[in-house]
């Protein structure tokens, strides 16, 4: 009850854009869209490259209650240590991007609307870099990167799914969440159905997003920068099977011309939301999709597990290990 009361007093009905501090090697700009400006972060490679050794750009996409800055640590490792140009987008209502307002966010911001933001970011990166990018999405953002490929809205150099909503939908994730938090529905009623009720207190954020080894201070800082509310229609649009893996694979460069498809599926060993059984099933379905479409044993579908990490493996105490797992995959491209 104490957590529910504390959470009630933390709930807000306005969500002004917030400027998270950035390290010197990461800059902030904006992508223009019909609705408003979207925050785009850029981490420049530590060394200048020429046409012969230029590496593929990576575009990171956050999940629910995320923002572009959840990727700062991984962007730093990839750009400064491994020389990859890295970008991260804040979708509408997140980070320093424009806020549509409480009711518009909750009831009018659909999965399709969020995908419009993502497509705008993809086009911006392609213009800046002069080539297709690697798409990397976390949680609901991982569902979205699959969605834009499935609907032929973009073409990717490679695909990275980080504790992502599976291609077969998010119902298993919500089942895990309800088991993790038995007071979920009761607290939500007490909080007048406010969408941030399940994450209204740092202890709830810590339990859902991080490992037991992660200090509570990390969850407290993470909570401070979270959006004050979230769309209920965005993740809801991915509740059941929402993409066909064959269409997703067909829009990864190399997938249709005899080349080796490249998909990395990343998991946190202690993720209580996107549990290992869901991640393993995702990998199995993508491998089956490659086998059916290419008839090849050289499937190009890889899976990594970060030992001890929770759902936000890019922010948990094991984040450097996860970053190196991703870097090893990218180097093989």
UniProtKB/TrEMBL annotation:
UniProt cross-references to InterPro entries, sorted A to Z: AB_hydrolase_1 (IPR000073), AB_hydrolase_fold (IPR029058), Carboxylesterase_BioH (IPR050228)
Residues annotated as domain AB hydrolase-1: 58-315
SUPFAM superfamilies (alphabetical): alpha/beta-Hydrolases (SSF53474)
Transmembrane segments: none
One Pfam family here: Abhydrolase_6
Classification via PANTHER family: HYDROLASE ALPHA/BETA FOLD FAMILY, PEROXISOMAL MEMBRANE PROTEIN LPX1
Protein name: AB hydrolase-1 domain-containing protein
Lineage: Eukaryota, Fungi, Dikarya, Ascomycota, Pezizomycotina
């Amino acid at each position: 009850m104490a957590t529910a009361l504390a959470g009630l007093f933390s709930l807000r009905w306005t969500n002004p854009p917030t400027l998270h501090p950035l390290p010197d090697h990461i800059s902030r700009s904006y992508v223009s869209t019909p609705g408003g400006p979207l925050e785009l972060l850029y981490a420049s490679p530590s060394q200048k490259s020429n046409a012969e050794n230029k590496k593929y750009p990576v575009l990171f996409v956050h999940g629910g209650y995320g923002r572009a800055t959840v990727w700062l640590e991984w962007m730093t490792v990839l750009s400064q240590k491994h020389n990859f140009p890295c970008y991260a987008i804040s979708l509408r209502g997140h980070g320093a991007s424009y806020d549509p307002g409480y009711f518009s966010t909750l009831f009018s911001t659909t999965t399709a609307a969020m995908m419009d933001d993502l497509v705008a970011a993809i086009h911006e990166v392609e213009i800046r870099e002069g080539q297709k990018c690697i798409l990397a999405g976390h949680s609901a953002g991982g569902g979205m990167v699959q969605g834009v490929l499935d609907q032929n809205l973009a073409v990717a150099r490679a695909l990275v799914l980080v504790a992502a909503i599976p291609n077969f939908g998010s119902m298993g994730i919500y089942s895990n969440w309800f088991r993790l938090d038995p007071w979920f529905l009761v607290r939500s009623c007490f909080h007048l159905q406010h969408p941030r009720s399940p994450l209204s207190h740092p202890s709830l954020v810590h339990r859902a997003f991080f490992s037991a080894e992660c200090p509570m201070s990390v969850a407290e800082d993470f909570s401070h920068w979270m959006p004050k509310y979230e769309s209920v229609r965005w993740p809801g649009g991915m509740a059941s099977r929402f993409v066909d893996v064959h269409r997703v694979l067909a829009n990864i460069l190399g997938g249709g011309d005899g080349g080796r498809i490249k998909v990395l599926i990343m998991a946190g060993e202690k993720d209580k939301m996107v549990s290992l059984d869901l991640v393993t099933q995702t990998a199995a379905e993508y491998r089956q999709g490659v086998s059916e479409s290419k008839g090849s044993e050289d499937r190009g579908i890889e899976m990594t597990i970060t030992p001890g990490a929770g759902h936000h493996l890019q922010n948990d105490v094991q984040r450097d290990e996860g970053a190196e797992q991703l870097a090893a995959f990218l180097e093989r491209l």
